[in-house]
């Protein structure tokens, strides 16, 4: 399966390279597409945030990509929520994550880089999990557990639990070796 990472606006190259390496190990193959801009019509001037749903459905799907994962570094929200870390088209092809809020709560510069990479990977795998048809999982260590806060993100791992792995296997996706 080919995961295509699409940077929207300015995104740290180090984070993209890290996601590319890890996602290709987990899902079989990944690559980084040329950078695009964040669609301006997705910006809500009252909230000073971007509407993630609007961005999600404006994402292009290049023919060789099974999943397009947009990565941006701006504050995003979805209807009814103050903010989101990401969003995905359940059972579709598109997903989006934002690094903006994942940077919060860490003061040490050196630790911050590692934390950001780890959190970005968890949110990326989570949203791709939705694209693959998985819904939220009650297991707090499972990557498909819903993150309401960074604490939830930090508690969960980047891995799918046994139950979620079995669901994926039933869809013909064997990720056991990741
Ligand atoms: Zn979710
Ligand atoms: Zn699970």
The CATH class designation is: Alpha Beta
Strand content: 15-25%
Number of strands: 8
Q: What's the rounded overall pLDDT mean?
A: 95
Find the structural class using helix and strand composition.
Answer: alpha/beta
Which residues form runs of ≥5 with pLDDT under 50?
Answer: none
Topology:
Layout: E1 2-8, H1 13-27, E2 29-32, E3 43-44, E4 49-51, H2 52-58, E5 67-72, E6 76-77, E7 86-88, E8 94-98, H3 109-131, H4 150-155, H5 162-170
Parallel strand pairs: 1-2, 1-5, 4-6, 5-8
Antiparallel strand pairs: 3-4, 7-8
Helix pairs in contact: 1-3
Short account of what is shown:
By secondary structure, the chain is α/β, with parallel strands linked by helices. Helix content is 34%, strand content 18%. It has a single domain (2-98, 114-170), classed as Collagenase (Catalytic Domain), CATH 3.40.390.10.
Main attributes of the structure:
about 180 residues, 3-stranded mixed sheet, about 35% helix, 5 helices, Collagenase (Catalytic Domain), binds zinc ion, 5-stranded mixed sheet, alpha/beta
């Amino acid at each position: 399966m080919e995961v295509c990472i699409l940077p929207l606006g300015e995104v740290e190259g180090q984070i993209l390279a890290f996601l590319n390496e890890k996602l290709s190990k987990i899902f079989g193959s990944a690559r980084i597409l040329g950078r695009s801009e964040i669609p301006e019509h997705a910006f809500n001037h009252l909230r000073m945030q971007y509407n993630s749903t609007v961005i999600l459905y404006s994402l292009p799907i290049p023919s060789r990509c099974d999943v397009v994962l947009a990565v941006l570094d701006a504050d995003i929200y979805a209807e009814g929520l103050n903010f989101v870390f990401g969003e995905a088209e359940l059972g579709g092809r598109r997903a989006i994550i934002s690094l903006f809020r994942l940077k919060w709560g860490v003061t040490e510069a050196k630790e911050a880089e590692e934390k950001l990479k780890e959190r970005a990977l968890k949110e990326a795998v989570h949203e791709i999990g939705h694209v693959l048809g998985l819904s939220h999982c009650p297991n707090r260590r499972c990557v498909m557990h819903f993150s309401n806060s960074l604490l939830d993100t930090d508690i969960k791992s980047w891995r799918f639990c046994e139950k979620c792995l079995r669901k994926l296997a039933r869809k013909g996706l064997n990720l056991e070796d990741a």
